[in-house]
């Protein structure tokens, strides 16, 4: 009887393992997220503000599943036509939480592997958090992003690895898509958030969005409000085909 019970438990364990074979990143030992930010070449595109970049994944209901945040990018690196990179070495505990959240995201419906992989290695939102560092924040505050590129590199315990590269490209008309100082609140830290989102199902355009909130946390609902011109919330979409 005891042997039969042990055999049943073993078979159950094997069945669970087989049913979750699509969790190919669960043994990840390292995740490196590289962020490349290019300031536009438009006249006066530079800013006197500092910048933090948040990278994350939204589900189909616009709920933020996970995010990671870069170290500060100083205003010296955010001048006209300049490029700057930041690398996020994601801690092991955070990798495990991301994997668990993506597993839950993919657990229901068809094509679990595709949903899981998209969540793990296809971030579809970049939040740009401009923070002023001068009491004269109105001066030189406006900034125009040119584009953002992301690369994600996973190392797994079995020697396998996963890699992806994603480009977010803004509108190329210098009259649009400015992060203007008029959008910076006069309280709560003078922070301006705007974000870019890409649809991986078509992968033919990126959109710049200005949300009516100051920061994002996992589980947040990201309201679909779009930036138009130099200011405005809500606004209208601005697209550029890749």
TrEMBL record:
Q: Where is the signal peptide?
A: 1-18
What keywords are assigned to this protein? Signal
**This chain belongs to which protein, by name?**
DOMON domain-containing protein
What is the scientific name of the source organism? Steinernema hermaphroditum
